[in-house]
UniProtKB/TrEMBL annotation:
Family listed: Belongs to the ELIP/psbS family.
Protein name in the entry: Early light-induced protein
Membrane-topology descriptor: Multi-pass membrane protein
InterPro entries (UniProt xref): Chloroa_b-bind
Residues passing through the membrane, by range: none
Keyword annotations from UniProtKB, A to Z: Chloroplast, Membrane, Plastid, Thylakoid, Transmembrane, Transmembrane helix
A Pfam family it matches: Chloroa_b-bind
Domain of life: Eukaryota
Organism: Eucalyptus grandis (Flooded gum)
Subcellular location: Membrane; Plastid, Chloroplast
Length: 132
């Protein structure tokens, strides 16, 4: 009697899906890089903007016009490279998630920081000066 081969309905949990490390895949619209990098930059930018406002009393537009652009470019390059190296090596953000610091929490914090920067700029524009 021939025995039919049945498909395995319970695949091994040790098998991981292959993560694409191609540059275009990482930077695709739904890829892991764009929103994460922008969110990380927004988190740093929001905290830095509020810190400078509290220490010097400068609004966001004054910070940018008085030497903030080189700091922005340098920080953008540094954080982008630091974020891309693991992604291009095939390390997923989800694999490093643990406890409170999950990849979902990072996405939401980044989204809120992006909205916070826009709200800060808009409020300071309407008010005509620093928020604090």
């Amino acid at each position: 009697m021939l025995q039919e081969s049945k498909p395995d309905l319970n695949p091994s949990p040790n098998l991981k899906s292959k993560v694409s490390t191609g540059f275009t895949d990482v930077f695709a619209f739904s890829g892991p890089a764009p929103e994460r990098i922008n969110g990380r930059l927004a988190m740093i930018g929001f905290v830095a903007a509020i810190a400078v406002e509290l220490s010097k009393g400068q609004d966001l537009f004054a910070q940018i016009s008085e030497g903030g652009i080189p700091w922005f470019i340098g920080t953008s390059i540094l954080l982008s490279v630091a974020s891309l190296v693991p992604l291009l090596q095939g390390v997923t953000v989800e694999s490093k998630s643990d406890g409170v610091m999950t990849s979902n929490a990072e996405l939401w914090n980044g989204r809120l920081a992006m909205l916070g920067l826009v709200a800060l700029a808009f409020t300071e524009f309407v008010k005509g000066g620093a928020l604090v």
